[in-house]
Amino acid sequence: MEWPLIVLVAVPILAGLGSLLLKERRAIEALHCVQAGAMLASALLVIERVVAADGLSVSVILQADALSAWMDLILGVVGGTGTLYAVGYMGEEMTRGHLAVQRYSQFFCLFDLYLAAMLTAVNQDNIAIMWIAIEGSTLSAALLIGFERSKAALEAGWKYVILSSVGIALALFGTVLIYYSSEQVLGVTGEALRWSQLYQTAERLNPAAIKIAFVFALIGYGTKAGVAPMHTWLPDAHAEAPTPVSAMLSASMLTVAVYAILRFKVITDRTVGPDFAGTLVVALGLLSLTVAGTFLLVQRDFKRLFAYSSIEHIGIALLGFGIGGAGVFAGAWHLLNHALAKSTAFYGAGLVLLGYQHRLLDRVSGLLVHMPLAGTAVLVAGLALAGMPPFGLFTSELLIAVGAYAVKPEVAGLFLLLLALAFATLLYQVFRMALGGPIEPGSPLGKHCRLFASAAVALNVGALGMIGLHVPPRLTLLLDAIVKLFSPTTEMP
Q1: Exposed e or buried b for every residue in 149-166, given b needs 16+ CB within 10 A?
Q2: How far, in Å, CA of 358 to CA of 70, rounded?
C-alpha cells in the first residue's frame, strides 16, 4: 500500500494551504499538531513498506527506495518535532505582540510548503523533478529567512537567494549533462532522467560527461549543503532566520542537498569507479571540518555557533560517503543523528533567544538553573554533537575514522585532529552556556511555549538516546540496503 507516502508528502501541503484559510490562532495550532503526528507516523510506515517491498511508488509521481526512505525518516521525524516547536515559538511571539494572526498563518504556510518541497525532492525517480523540488524549497526558505523583515534578516535572505541560485544553476547544468550522456543510451525519452534507469545503465554512459556532471552537481548542491568553501550564506541565514527555520535549515535542508549529491555520486561511481567522486567528496569534507573547527573557536553568537557546527557535521558525513564501504553506513547514520541533535540544539537556542532577547554567548550562562528546558536541550545536544558516547554520532565518527584509516591513514589522522579541535571548541562554548550561575535575568516564557517546546525536545532527546544505544532492526535493514546501493559487494558493519 502506497498511502503512507502520499500522506507524508500531502499533509504539509494541505496544512500550509489550510493555514491561509484559518483566521483563529487555536485552529492553526490544532491543524499543525495533527500535521506533526501524521508526519511522524507516516515516515515510520514508509520505512515499513520500503523494507518489506524493497521500494514504494505512487504511479510515476512519487517513488521511494532505501535512500529515499532514510531521508523520509529524517524529514518526517525532525519536520514533525519542528512543527510542534514552531507552534510554541511563534505562539510566544504572538503573545508578546510581535506577530499578527495574518503573519502567523503566512509563516506556517511557508514553513509547510518548505517541508513539502523537500519531501517531494527525496521521493522522486526523476532527477530533473528532484532539481525542481529543491529549487522550490529554496524559494520558501528564502522567504522564511527574511521573515522578520529586519535589515539583517533581509540581507541574509538575499545572500541566500544569490548563492543558492548560483548553486542550483550549476546543479541544473550537471543534470543536463547527465541527460546528454544517458539519451545516447536510452534515447530521447523521460527514461533518460530516471534515477533507476541511470543506475542500471551507468556503465554504458559517457565517462567524460559524467565526470563533468558530477563536479557541477557537487559544487551546485554542495552550496545548498553548506559545504566549504560555498558555505558563506549559512551562518548568516541560521542566525537571522526565526529559530524554527534555523533548525529545519540545519537538520533538513542540508541533508536534502547531501541526498542530491549522493544520487549523482552513485551514478558516477558505477560509470568511472569510486576514486574520482570519492576523492572530491573527501577533500570537501575535510575542508568543511577545517573551516568549521576554526570558526567554532571564535564565535560570540550562539546561533552562529550551531550553524558552524552544521558545516562540520555535513563535512563528516561527506567524508564517510567519500571513503565508501563502512563509511556509507556511518555517513547515513551520521545524517540522522545530526538532524536530531542539531534541531534539539536550535530548539534550546530559540528558547534562550526568547528569554534573553539577544544571541551573545558572553551574556548567557547557567541555563540549567535559570532555564532548565533550554539548558537541557543545549547540553544534551552539545554532548551529542561533540561525539560523546552513548550518542549515535560517536559511533558514526568512530566508524568513519576506522574506515578512513583502512583506506588512507593520513586522511584518518587529519580527520581525528580536526575532530578534536571541533570537539574542544564546541564543548567549551556549550558548557559556558549550560553551567555556572546566571549572568543576567531573562524574560519568563509562557506556559504555551514551554509545553510545545518540551514536547519537541523530549521527542528528539528520546530518539537520540534510543538509537544511540541500539539500532532498531528496521533501520538496520534500511542501512544495509543503502550500503549495497553504493557498493553491492560490501556488507554492513
Answers
A1: eeeebeebbebbbebbee
A2: 36
What CA–CA distance (Å, rounded) separates 224 from 388? 28
Task: Give the Cα separation of 342 and 223 in Å (integer).
Answer: 19
What average pLDDT does range 351-362 have in this prediction?
90
Q: Provide φ and ψ at 458, rounded to 5°.
A: -65, -45
Nearest to 34 by CA among 49, 54, 53, 12: 12
CB atoms within 10 A of CB 397: 24
Preceding amide of 229 cis, omega within 30 = yes
Single-letter residue type at 210? I
Query: Nearest CA to 330 among 490, 183, 220, 200?
Result: 490
| Grid cell at residue 392 | 549515535
Alpha helices in 357-446 (DSSP H): 367-370, 372-385, 392-407, 409-434
% of the chain with per-residue pLDDT over 90: 70
Convert the pLDDT of each residue in 12-45 to its tens digit: 999 999 999 988 999 999 999 999 999 999 999 9
Q: How many CB atoms lie within 10 A of CB 256?
A: 23
Where are the alpha helices (H) located in 202-253, listed in sequence order? 207-224, 233-240, 243-248
Length of the chain in residues, anyone?
493
The Cα–Cα gap between 135 and 7 comes to 22
φ, ψ at 293 (rounded to 5°): -60, -40
Q: In terms of Cα–Cα distance, which of 350, 301, 382, 384 is closest to 454?
A: 350
Comparing CA positions, the residue from 18, 12, 14 lying closest to residue 43 is 12
Question: Cβ(492)–Cβ(479) under 8 Å?
Answer: yes
Distances (CA, A) of 137 to 86, 208, 335, 487: 18, 31, 19, 30
Q: Are 173 and 161 in contact (CB under 8 A)?
A: no
Rounded to an integer, what distance in angstroms lies between the CA atom of residue 454 and that of residue 376?
A: 10
